[in-house]
Structure formats: structure tokens, C-alpha cells
Amino acid sequence: MATMTATPAPDAPESINHVGRLIGVFFSPGKTFADIAQRPSWIAPVVLMSIIGLLVGFVMNQKVDWRQVASKRIEESSRGAQLSADQKEQQLAISAKISPPIAYCFGLLGPILLTLIVGAVMLGAFNLLGGAGTNFKTSMGIVSHAYVVTILSSLLFILILFLKPADTIDLDNPVATNIGAFLPDGTAKWLDKLASAIDIFSFWVIALLGIGFAATNRKKLSTGSAIGIVLVVWGAYEVVRVGIAFIFS
């Protein structure tokens, strides 16, 4: 009787650890997101972004004069001229008191809220438009890791706070990575919002989200079509954001 030799099964790809995933998002996103799609996790990137967010809040509270920021915004607002001196002083005092804890809360809670909200929106979009058939944990894993690249923007912001006088920094657009940073003063708010949407980090995150969700179902989603779905969602959000700015400008 002829003997039959069993062919050994190929080894399963080795899982990437949490640190490797955080690094891999920058240097090997395809391999990294394929691993996340198979074994989703989101806690490590959220914790890292929260730590960086708290650091940003700490440096802002050391460098920024919140009373001065509030004064500038009141003067630039349409209702600033309608306020009495006492009303302006009251608003300045309130702003100086609540802005520091708000900076810390935003840094701490912003990443988890962002992951939850964007994760839910993308889950619905990809399951409805792309037939991905994925779940919320996987969606959160992809979203949280995609936004890790924005840590570079936060670190640049901290560097800017140390290098430039705080009163010369536009806190609404501190890192000049979008077209809005180069528009002249007095530009219409809706146009400023539209220009600020053309941002290096926004498109980087969009590309990573497309790569990540494509990895959840290669049979139904190519990377190009997945990026297209993300662009549709992003475009709808920007239309609403710019529209609101236009209505209230």
C-alpha cells in the first residue's frame, strides 16, 4: 500500500502586540489593520491618546491666558458690542474659571468619545453601504488605531506652545496642517470651516479607516471602495459643519 504523507498546515500569522500595533499604524498599516480585524482591541490607543490629551491640557493651562482668549472671542463675536462692561467682565471671569478643567476633561474624555461616536457611525456606514458584516468592537479597534496618527498633531501643538507666545496662537487651528490656517483674518466663518477641512491629518485618518475596514471583509470591500465610503461619511459631516457655520455667520 502506498504511504500518504500529510502536508503540514501553514503556520498562522503571529499576532501583533499592542505596542507593535501602535507603531505599525504608521509604518505597516495593511498588516496592522488585518491583525486588528482578526483580533480587535481599542483600549491601548485610547489610553495613549488620553495621556497625550491630558499633557496638552496641562501645557495649555500653563501657557494660555484663558481670560485673554475669552476677551478676544467676545470682541470678534457679533454680540460682543451688545454686552455691557459688567456683562463682559462676568463672562471673562467665568471663562477663566471653567476653561482649565474643560481642557483636562477634553483631553481625557475626548479620545473615548471620539472612538465611540465615530465607531458607531462607521459601523453603520460599512454594514449598510459596504456589507462588511463587522461588529462594534472591531469598528472601535479600527477607529481608535486610525486616530493614533493625530498624536503627532498634538505633539506639534505642545511644541508650538513652548516656541511661540500664546497670544499669537490660533487655538481653533493651532497646527498649520490645513488650508484654513493660511486664510487672512476676517475670512467668512463658513469659508474658514470649509478650508480647515482640507487637512493633512484628516486625509491620513480617512486612508487608515479605509484600509482598516477593507480588512474586515476582503471579499466585499476593496481598499478603494472602503476609502470611498469613509469619504462619503466625512463629506456629509463637513457639509453639515460648513452649513451650520454659514447659517449662523
Overview of the molecule:
The chain has one domain (18-247). The longest helix has 45 residues, at 85-129. The relative contact order is 0.12. By secondary structure, the protein is an all-alpha fold. The protein has helices at 18-27, 29-38, 43-63, 66-76, 85-129, 136-146, 151-163, 189-196, 200-214, 223-247. The model has no long low-confidence stretch (mean pLDDT 89). It is globular, with a radius of gyration of 22 Å.
Pick out its properties.
249 residues; mainly alpha; 10 helices; 68% helix; globular
Order of helices and strands: HHHHHHHHHH
Average pLDDT rating: 89
Q: How much β-strand is present in the residues?
A: under 5%
Shape: globular
Q: What's the helix count?
A: 10
Helix content: 55-70%
What low-confidence regions span 5 or more consecutive residues with pLDDT below 50?
none
Secondary structure class reads mainly alpha
Distance between the termini: 87 Å
- State Rg: 22 Å
Integer count of domains: 1
